[in-house]
Predict the structure.
Amino acid sequence: MGLFGKLFGGDKELPPLDPASQEAARLQKYRAILDGWVPKIHDKIEVVPTDRFLLAFIGLPPDRFGIAWFDPDGSEHNFKKLMASKGLTVREVNLVSEELRKAYRTHAEEPRYSLEIGGKKIKVTPSIALAKDVDEIIHKITG
């Protein structure tokens, strides 16, 4: 968010993620991945840790954003590459993007926390339900 957003309250201050929480424990297995990845991203980041994967929203969801996800072994995947590999049309990409927006909006009121990684504040959303919804959308594409 720009200067005016911060001046007029557009950037809501989030409570820090409790290091003793279950969410922090889930996030810990991706910490090495995040330590290397977060500093490379020049946009806002929101992560959703699960036991099976780490989901990351990049940008300003639900409006303008990208998605990446990481397996515990460090494998990185992203929406842009997935769309290209499946040869989806612009119309199909737009439909999937709208499904992702809807999933994000559905879980917009869930608690969010802040965490600093590599000198950058990121948002942590410990929502298994959000991750499940996004995972189902992605699996419709991958088959």
Remarks:
- The chain has six helices and six strands.
- The chain has one domain: 16-142.
- Helices lie at 3-7, 22-28, 31-37, 79-86, 90-106, 128-142.
